[in-house]
């Protein structure tokens, strides 16, 4: 029987990546605390944050590729030369950041008010094998390891069975809760962290729309499905967390303990 005459279910679809957010990790890796954010931190510079001791909510994000094909972006220098809109150069970080990779939101379930994170860009590489609990294929060799800089080749992407993880100590992996970034103060209470990977967006005039979902929204990356790209976790914000903090990561080191330098993604 020819392929054209076979039932549709028997014809294998083209291999495609499939990104998800590891909600279990998100739920178990957060802390609310008072933390020194020096003026030299890139996240302070890029996020317009007033330096000093700020009340923040730090959290980790992991985005496994549970599909059956790699996300293979390669060298950001090539994308910048092609002006395809996928990357921008982060001056403070001194490497290329992928645009529209995740949207991280802190949401008040009672009012729907949303706060944005301090993180402004992403370097997409294989950082961790995807945990078996998220499903998908087992990991093979680690392929994508380097962010790249101007004139220095990088190799960005996420292999099948691997994940890109942004641990809570990295630059920008936090929400400012005390208004120090110009957003409203976050009152104590129960909140939701919502992370959307490869989020939908509407292309501005002259902006590329690399891939389109069935609803007509743009996405930077191709996927077999776009309806499983959201992860959520509930967090409790206290009005007196102190330096030690509250939450699953209470008592963990501060970014400023690292000889005054901020850990950056891809370092």
The percent range for helix content is under 10%
Quickly give the structural class: mainly beta
Biggest sheet features: 4 strands, antiparallel
In spatial order, strands of the major sheet run 8-7-13-16
Account of the protein in words:
The strands form six sheets. The chain has a four-stranded antiparallel β-sheet. A three-stranded antiparallel β-sheet has the order 1-2-12. It is built from three helices and 16 strands. 41% of the residues are buried. β14 and β15 (218-219) form a beta hairpin. The protein has one domain (15-247). The chain has 267 residues and is mainly beta. The protein has helices at 23-28, 42-47, 76-82, and strands at residues 30-37, 52-59, 61-64, 71-74, 87-90, 95-98, 102-107, 114-116, 128-129, 156-158, 162-166, 174-176, 189-197, 211-212, 218-219, 230-237. The chain starts with 22 loop residues before the first helix and ends in a 30-residue tail after the last strand. The radius of gyration is 19 Å and the shape is globular. The chain is 7% helix and 28% strand.
Quick description:
This protein is mainly beta and 267 residues long.
């Amino acid at each position: 029987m020819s392929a054209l005459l076979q039932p549709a279910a028997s014809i294998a679809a083209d291999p495609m990546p499939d990104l998800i957010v590891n909600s279990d990790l998100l739920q178990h890796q957060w802390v609310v605390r008072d933390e020194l954010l020096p003026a030299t931190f890139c996240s302070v510079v890029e996020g317009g944050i007033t330096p000093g001791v700020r009340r923040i909510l730090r959290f980790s994000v992991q985005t496994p590729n549970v599909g059956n094909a790699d996300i293979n972006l390669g060298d950001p220098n090539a994308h910048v030369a092609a002006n395809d809109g996928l990357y921008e150069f982060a001056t403070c970080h001194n490497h290329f950041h992928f645009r529209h990779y995740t949207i991280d939101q802190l949401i008040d379930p009672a009012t729907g008010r949303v706060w944005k994170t301090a993180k402004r860009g992403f370097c997409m590489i294989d950082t961790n094998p995807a945990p078996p609990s998220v499903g998908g294929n087992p990991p093979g060799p680690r392929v994508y390891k380097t962010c790249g800089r101007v004139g220095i080749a990088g190799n960005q992407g996420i292999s099948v069975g691997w994940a890109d993880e942004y641990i809570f100590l990295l630059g920008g992996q936090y929400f400012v809760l005390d208004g120090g970034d110009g957003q409203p103060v976050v009152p104590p209470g129960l909140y939701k962290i919502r992370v959307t990977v490869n989020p939908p967006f509407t292309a501005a005039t002259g902006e590329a729309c690399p891939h389109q979902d069935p609803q007509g929204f743009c996405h930077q990356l191709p996927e077999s499905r776009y309806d499983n790209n959201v992860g959520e976790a509930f967090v409790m914000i206290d009005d007196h967390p102190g330096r030690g903090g509250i939450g699953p990561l209470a008592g963990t080191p501060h970014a400023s303990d690292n000889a005054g330098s901020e850990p950056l993604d891809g370092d």
